[in-house]
From TrEMBL:
It comes from Clathrus columnatus. This is Non-hemolytic phospholipase C. Gene3D superfamilies: Alkaline Phosphatase, subunit A (3.40.720.10), Cytochrome P450 (1.10.630.10). GO terms for molecular function: heme binding; hydrolase activity, acting on ester bonds; iron ion binding; monooxygenase activity; oxidoreductase activity, acting on paired donors, with incorporation or reduction of molecular oxygen. It comes from the Eukaryota. Coiled coil: none annotated. Its cofactor is heme. The keyword Protein biosynthesis does not apply.
């Protein structure tokens, strides 16, 4: 739907794996064709799916499945922990009545279920304001905690789903205040009447007003008749029949007919001018949501509880995921979007405010204070000063099938025709462009603003706009479509609701760089320098004021709408939320070089241009395509083996193989990368550096001059991995002899049950402990070696060279060569940026006493050292491109500048080149990309645009190994020495980028330093 928080969300959550929330994890139990599932249109396959999916099942609405999908806030396990279908969606053509009703009046796009739970808990909350989470206004012996449907007297566990409930409902407060109310239901109410679950209603005399108003079976026709006669009570509850509930397998199309019946009764009533109809769903129905729920601070009484299914953790009860919610009334007419945080408690608070306006003080004491403070009372959803009695044109839904006894049969008919109504899940067939459907258009905004939208601020004929020439906020012209890119803004919240403070980001970039509004209204590329604005809704369509917090002044327009400044007088701005996002602006073209070239004054070396003119290829620089199209679809995009000759000295290994062979190699290798291995690596790196200080350089040596930095760093990293692997003679023998002899030595020691070694290569050898022990006494040394080749699916006497030798060589190469070069670049950059060295040294001294040797437990204390390593790898990635060979013909979707999609077929055996360096220097993803700024890695950063270790399942298995060793080396070195330029005069008159180019000029090559290290010694 255009104008609501949906697939164009500019604030979409980025999960811990570096991917946006759209990319839900997929494991082998679901599919081997991909590692991620994007939202998918459930009827995309065509045919009769539009009818079949009306009775499909989405997923679970339960506490366990939905908390599991939320994944402790990562929100990326909907496919695995719930169902893949929970990540599907309908389009406007599938549910036209729902769309029309929501857009005819006002829809809320941040309205949530009260609890992450099933029907009963949410309906109980709807009529009472609680599910009795411990610490709230209720007592534990009053029922609950309600997290599941239970109508059997007693508890499912101590203080869990205890039935019946006995805390006070809002209807009882209405009753006491003399407010008329009635629940309308038929004989089939689907068991959804929440008053039936409360003890005081169960015990009420049959002729009492409490029982009559809650339990009378009046039928919905009674509601329609009362509406037509203008005799509805002050408050009405409507409980529909199961067949029209839209609860799977009952269809949305049948539910649409009920929506229309109720809406028609209200808008045709003589009392419509004084009526409000709120249409809400109790829970998610098993459909997923990309927006992470707002939560109370951890362990807030009445909001957090011990997880009954994992008592070692506490979880929040709610609010949960978003639900459809719209309000029909003369004061909500016009197609607006209400953006404030709200849930079922909001309906309760609205009625309280309405009754207060009539002089009645009816306030429930059962609602937890945190909800009152953080959920909207919905008043800003209405414009009470400008009622609009017009009625929109509405589609007429098809009436549901009805049986001879009046029962609704839509589900029966659908399931009879379509016994398997589930749509196909498009594993491995998705791109972001063909999956995330974004409608063009806009909606005017009401209520407190929230993230997740592209906003236009207008006053009369003027609109806030970006002046790209003067790099500042200015006034532009307002246009009816509200679609001028320069006039759009993105909000970044600076505090949790109910605060309404934000940084404002310009949607349009300047020279490819993202900019924010500074306190002087100038554009700034740094969010740290962005001004904080308090944006307040004045209500009743009066607009929003925008106050710069530090000065207390407001954005104000003067000079007949020609001048914008900060002043004491606030100008109200009307707000529109754009739905289209002009998706192409954020996501560069997929085919052809999508990124600008690296600026010419960054001299990255003689060979840092890689154009393979003799092969057709598509050069890809887009973050989403790199991470999803190519990295996740590993069976479609294969490694281009020709470029791996340098690492195939001893045969295929994990780096060079693909498909099933890759899986087998990884199965053998993966266990050797463990916490114990990392600790060994840390300890040995510390020892190597200590030996360098105390023996090679001498304790009192003040200056060490290094002419060629890799001469030093290669020696350090090679010694470290040799020590970590206990290859004592690596510098004294040919590499092949060392590995083969060491392999036999380890096997002999193992068979003789001598003390077990805990090192890198032994971990590789004994990765399948049980199978090894079973074979210990049955095979010779050579046969045991060959057994590992069977694990890899190979046979024959060459297994030693092909498998173990090859992977150990890969360990040696990947384990020191790339890190050696990275540390060389890092030290060069630190020499150019002394202030960054000081930050590292400060962190070292804060965590270590004088002359203290850092233990492995200190690793995570050196966050800034890791940030420096990461920034060095961003500027100078050791692997500058990933080359993939297309296994089968494939079609890429290319979004053109006019927004249309062009299908570009590429035949198999061609190449796709992923330009990592260009990605790392893309100003769309990195502010001031040429700048050496480690702080960009101290918080959240765009992990999709950072690929020094590749990505997806084929990402570098040794990443953590390199990080641990790199931190240890830099901490030891920089705790003793300061890195400086040997001849600073050579760099006089050069700016920092030119100095960097002169110092770090390099050539792309692979150094197999097993041999070269012998020369260095």
């Amino acid at each position: 739907m255009a104008g609501v928080r949906g697939f164009a969300d500019p604030n979409a959550h980025v999960s811990e794996n570096g991917k946006q929330v759209w990319f839900q994890l997929v494991d082998g139990t679901l599919s081997n064709d991909t590692e991620a599932l994007l939202p998918f249109y459930i009827n995309a396959a065509g045919g009769n799916l539009t009818q079949a999916t009306q009775c499909m099942l989405a997923g679970s609405n339960g506490f366990t499945a939905n908390h599991a999908a939320l994944a402790q806030g990562d929100n990326n396990l909907w496919a695995i922990a719930n169902t893949p279908y929970s990540w599907g969606y309908f389009l406007r053509q599938d549910i036209p009545t729902h769309f029309a009703l929501a857009e005819g009046w006002t829809v809320a796009d941040m309205y949530a279920q009260a609890a992450i739970a099933t029907t009963h808990p949410n309906r109980a909350f709807w009529v009472s304001g609680s599910i009795n989470v411990p610490g709230g206004p209720q007592q534990l012996d009053q029922g609950g905690v309600a997290i599941d449907n239970n109508e059997t007297p007693g508890c499912e566990a101590p203080n869990l789903d205890c039935y019946p409930y006995s805390w006070k409902t809002t209807a009882e407060f209405y009753e006491e205040a003399g407010v008329s109310w009635q629940l309308y239901q038929g004989t089939d109410n689907f068991g959804d009447n929440p008053f039936a679950w409360f003890e005081q209603f169960q015990n009420a005399p049959a002729n009492s007003t409490l029982a009559e108003r809650a339990f009378a079976v009046l039928g919905l026709q009674a509601f329609y008749d009362a509406a037509a006669n203008g005799t509805l009570p002050q408050i009405s509850y409507i409980i529909g029949p199961g067949g029209l509930s839209e609860h799977p397998p009952w269809s949305p199309s049948d539910g649409a007919w009920l929506h229309q019946q109720v809406v028609n009764a209200v808008i045709n009533s003589p009392k419509y001018s004084s009526t409000v109809l709120m249409v809400s769903y109790d829970e998610t129905g098993g459909w997923g949501d990309h927006v992470i729920p707002i939560t109370a601070p951890k362990d807030t009484p009445g909001e957090w509880m011990t997880n009954p299914f994992n008592t070692s953790q506490t979880v929040f009860a709610g609010p949960g995921f978003r639900l459809p919610f719209y309000v029909v009334s003369p004061w909500t007419r016009g197609g607006h979007v209400f953006t404030a945080h709200s849930d079922h408690s909001s309906q309760i608070m609205f009625i309280e405010e309405w009754l207060a306006s009539k002089g009645k003080n009816v306030v429930t004491d059962q609602l937890n204070p945190w909800r009152r403070e953080h959920m909207s009372n919905l008043l800003q959803m209405f414009d009470f000063e400008h009622p609009d009695m017009s009625i929109p044109d509405l589609p007429v839904p098809t009436p549901p099938a009805i049986g001879p006894q009046g029962q609704f049969l839509g589900d029966v008919e659908c399931q009879t025709i379509f016994p398997n109504p589930q749509p196909p899940v498009p594993y491995g067939q998705q791109t972001r462009q063909n999956s995330l459907t974004i409608e063009t258009g806009f909606k005017s905004v009401r209520g407190s603003l929230t993230e997740g939208r592209f906003l236009v601020f207008e006053s009369g004929n003027s609109a806030l706009s970006l002046d790209t020439r003067n790099r500042q906020l200015t006034l532009g012209g307002a246009v009816p479509e509200h679609d001028t890119p320069l006039n759009r803004f993105v909000l970044h919240a600076t505090a949790n609701p109910p605060a309404t403070t934000f940084n404002l980001q310009f949607f349009e970039t300047i020279n490819g760089q993202t900019n924010f509004i500074g306190s002087n209204l100038k554009a700034t590329t740094s969010m740290d320098d962005a001004a904080v604005f308090d944006i307040t809704d004045l209500g009743n369509s009066k607009g929003y004021t925008i106050q710069e917090v530090s000065s207390g002044q407001f954005l104000t327009i003067s000079g007949n709408g020609k001048s914008l400044a900060l002043g004491r007088q606030a100008t109200p701005f009307n707000n529109s939320h754009m739905g289209s996002n002009n998706a192409a602006k954020r996501h560069p073209d997929l085919v052809d070089r999508a990124l600008p070239p690296i600026p010419g004054h960054i001299a990255l070396g003689h060979g840092w241009e890689w154009i393979w003119k003799h092969r057709l290829f598509s050069s890809r620089g887009n973050e989403d395509v790199v991470n999803f199209e190519v990295l996740t679809r590993r069976n479609q995009f294969l490694k281009f083996r020709e470029i791996y000759q340098a690492v195939r000295t001893f045969g295929d290994n994990l780096i060079t193989v693909e498909k099933d062979a890759w899986k087998r190699h990884r199965k053998v290798i993966a266990p050797s990368f463990s916490e114990s291995t990392y600790k060994v690596t840390w300890d040995e790196a510390i020892k190597v550096m200590s030996g360098l200080f105390n023996e090679k350089w001498g304790k009192d040596t003040e200056y060490i001059i290094v002419k060629h930095m890799p001469d030093l760093t290669s020696l350090i990293t090679l010694k470290t991995i040799s020590a970590a692997g206990k290859i004592r003679n690596i510098l004294a023998h040919e590499a092949t002899n060392v590995i083969e002899l060491y392999m036999k030595e380890m096997i002999a020691e193992r068979r003789n049950k001598q003390e077990e070694r805990h090192d890198l290569f032994n971990a590789l050898l004994v990765s399948n402990e049980e199978n090894w022990d079973n074979m210990n006494d049955k095979f010779t040394d050579e046969e045991l070696i060959c057994w590992y080749s069977f694990v890899l699916g190979r046979k024959g006497s060459s297994c030693l060279t092909d498998v173990l030798l090859a992977n150990m060589f890969a360990f040696l190469l990947a384990g020191h060569e790339t890190l050696s070069h990275t540390i060389s670049y890092t030290l060069g950059l630190l020499a150019l940026h002394e202030e960054e060295q000081e930050k590292i040294y400060k962190q070292i001294t804060e965590n270590l006493h004088t002359d203290e040797i850092p233990g492995y437990e200190k690793l995570n204390s050196f966050t800034y050292v890791l940030a420096v390593l990461y920034e060095s790898l961003r500027l100078f990635p050791m692997v500058t491109m990933l080359v993939r060979e297309i296994a089968d013909d494939v079609t890429f979707s290319k979004q053109k500048s006019d927004g249309t999609i062009e299908q570009v077929p590429v035949t198999k055996d061609n190449l796709v080149i992923l330009d990592i360096a260009a990605l790392h220097y893309n100003p769309k993803y990195w502010t001031d990309p040429e700048k050496f700024d480690p702080t960009r890695f101290l918080g959240n950063y765009n992990k999709d645009a950072y690929l020094p270790f590749s990505g997806g399942m084929r990402a570098c298995i040794g990443r953590r190994f390199a990080e641990v060793e790199g931190i240890a080396i830099l901490v030891m070195l920089l705790s003793r020495y300061k890195v400086e330029l040997k001849d600073p005069g050579k760099y006089a008159g050069l700016d920092v980028l030119e100095r960097r180019a002169k110092l770090l000029k390099s050539e792309p090559r692979i150094t197999t330093t097993v041999q070269e290290a012998r020369k260095m010694k």
